[in-house]
Amino acid sequence: MNAALAALLMQAAAVQTAPPVDERALAKLVEDPAFSGDIQIADPEGGGWGYVGLLPQPYRGGDDGATWRWASVTKQVVAVLVMQEVAKGQIDLDRPIATYLPKFRSANAGTATVRQLLQHRSGLPNPDDSPKGPGGFPSYYQPGYTGSRDPLTGYCAGPVQGAAGGNWSYNNCDYLVLGALLEAVTGKSWATLVDERIAKPLEIDFLAAYPGEAFTRMGTIDGKPEPAIDLASYGAAAGLYGSIDALAKFDIALMEGRLIPPDALATLWQGDPALGYMALGQWVFEAPLKGCAKPVRIVERRGGVGGIEVRNFILPEIRRVVIAFSDRAPFAFGEVWQGAGFSHDLLSAAACGKGTKQ
Q: Can you give the pTM of this predicted structure?
């Protein structure tokens, strides 16, 4: 046996077949009256389970054709675009923002780095803190906003929250600025890059940035219709929409190394315990799941815009992705690491099916 063949066999042996899914436990979650939304479970080998809480019965084989706001899963996608440029040597994660955006007027432009933008450690302001508009929703995201949304000179260039490099503090300006940085480096908008580098190569039909979508799910907030939202205002922070199948395709391609090379993926998924396991644009951690013999490594990206919430999970060692959208906010997804709650039970059913020993 030659060395090349031996290496291939060893690689094949290391690839773990995805475990069975506890469909009874999944059905129980979907049938919970509190849940209204879509759940998708998929693996690279083509196996998949689709459950739609908005329809009378769960079904297999995909989603119902509707698109969802990907909300802050957009950040996960933008982080991949950034890492593509890092892999090419066009972006250095530890160079200041001003290196690439000399016209950025923020007081932190010369001190905050690209890595800190990705980790929410830049100290930039958060549009969530803009004055409240109708319904108590931040005015930045509502139609008729009178301020400037220019990422270089507008709201994001305003008074900072603090010095760069401290503990992470969630804010959308980090990724609005990253969108501008990508355009400065590549000469193309972040939305065009999503289309050219992700949607088209992966043959995804339903993935794009607002505006332009005629129909996506609407949501409720505390049981009431959500206020009017200018979805395009979320930009590179939360401005993508797409089908749940499209998100599964993205997750699988990322997991398989088809979007960025292995060293870039390792950097992207390096969760920092000191930052609550924040990696670059996502959280990466190990957590015990019910029915699994040992903790499972989880890549998580969560998001919410208005009445829509999403949880996107990639389980690299199990080679499976798990996605849940809800059209009721706030929905009690819970925290996986706490060992209970909807997300924990969903992942346990998806990763620790009966008779498996992971």
A: 0.91
